[in-house]
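quick q for whoever's on today - can somebody do inverse folding on this one?? i tried earlier but teh output was garbage lol. tokens:
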């Protein structure tokens, strides 16, 4: 059996510059330059600022990934970079850098669908992970439920009709004065809180796989303003736990609607929101109850990283796929 290809994966679709060297399921290195501090003072990701920060970080980060892996660039089989979806200016940095590096080294270049990267992430940590499976993808930019029928064969069963789940966390945390990024802040604040104190609406009950989170924002702001006025505002941990529960509830319910509908034996997750402790707990409990295997990546593998891009690229490489030198980014790429 021939050895798996040695791949450098680059990820610059949003606010993290990431690079990793992967061979098969083995992550030889994975490094990250987070822009959280840069964007925090604006309360959200500023596209122009993100693109500039990627430009500043990409070269040294790539060198660090290669050095940490003990790999010389000439030994690589391919260079991969995220092609989309994401912020156009941000995507362009990693894509152009990766394409140029591959060209200079005389190596294969692969442009990777960021969402396919999330689908491949669990493979780096679980030897027995694979299709068929239902995968819940939830981050700052996307919320979707995918039926992975086979590697490379995906059907998107549902997605958000307005805000992404991470966006809901971020907007609500901002409203509650908890800073950016909001997901980890609400996760932290919820500790010890009672999720039953306030019952916020669970939207789109009539659509089994779709999400809507913009109504929750209105419900929370209306509730908080009124409660504040009446002097009946619940303690912050209870309020946060209730907000978190409203988001987690629908993510779990709709994921398992899909599991049941397609008869999937396995469920997996990806995207920053899957780092949420309550969501992980609830997915674990539900999977156990139904006798379905759960492949939940470690929190660092849920959030954006270069290893998942290399993992998806590895599959594409072994199928003989190559990305043409004149290919461009596709910021609105859509999986399945
Ligand atoms: O996948 P990701 O790192 O980047 C993209 O948006 O693609 O996801 C970031 C999102 C942010 O909205 C952040 O608030 C959310 O994931 N997030 C969380 C947690 N950690 C990150 N949401 C809830 N709980 C968390 N622990
Ligand atoms: Zn992502």
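ok took a stab at it. sequence:
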């Amino acid at each position: 059996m021939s050895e798996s290809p040695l791949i450098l994966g680059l990820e610059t679709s949003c606010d993290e510059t990431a690079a990793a060297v992967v061979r098969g399921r083995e992550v030889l290195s994975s490094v990250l330059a987070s822009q959280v501090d840069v964007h925090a003072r604006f309360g959200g990701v500023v596209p122009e600022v993100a693109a500039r920060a990627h430009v500043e970080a990409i070269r040294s980060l790539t060198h660090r990934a290669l050095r940490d892996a003990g790999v010389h660039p000439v030994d690589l089989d391919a260079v991969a970079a995220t092609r989309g979806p994401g912020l156009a200016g941000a995507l362009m940095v990693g894509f152009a850098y990766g394409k140029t590096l591959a060209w200079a080294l005389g190596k294969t270049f692969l442009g990777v669908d960021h969402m396919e990267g999330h689908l491949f992430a669990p493979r780096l940590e679980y030897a027995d992970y694979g299709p068929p499976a239902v995968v819940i993808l939830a981050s700052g930019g996307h919320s979707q439920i995918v039926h992975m029928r086979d590697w490379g064969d995906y059907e998107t069963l549902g997605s958000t009709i307005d805000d992404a789940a991470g966006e809901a966390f971020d907007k609500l945390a901002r409203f509650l004065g908890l800073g950016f990024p909001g997901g980890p802040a609400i996760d932290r604040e919820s500790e010890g809180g009672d999720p039953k104190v306030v019952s916020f609406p669970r939207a789109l009950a009539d659509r089994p796989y779709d999400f809507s989170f913009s109504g929750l924002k209105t419900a929370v702001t209306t509730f908080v303003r009124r409660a504040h006025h009446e002097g009946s505002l619940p303690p912050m941990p209870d309020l946060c736990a209730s907000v978190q529960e409203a988001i987690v509830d629908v993510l779990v319910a709709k994921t398992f609607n899909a599991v049941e509908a397609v008869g999937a034996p396995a469920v997996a997750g990806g995207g920053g929101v899957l780092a949420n402790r309550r969501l992980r707990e609830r997915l674990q409990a539900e999977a156990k109850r139904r006798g379905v295997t759960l492949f939940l990546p470690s929190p660092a593998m849920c959030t954006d990283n270069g290893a998942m891009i290399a993992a998806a690229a590895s599959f594409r490489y072994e199928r003989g796929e190559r990305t043409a030198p004149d290919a461009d980014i596709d910021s609105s790429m859509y999986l399945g």
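fwiw The chain has two domains: 6-120+302-318, 130-296. also The chain has eleven helices and ten strands. so keep that in mind when u check it
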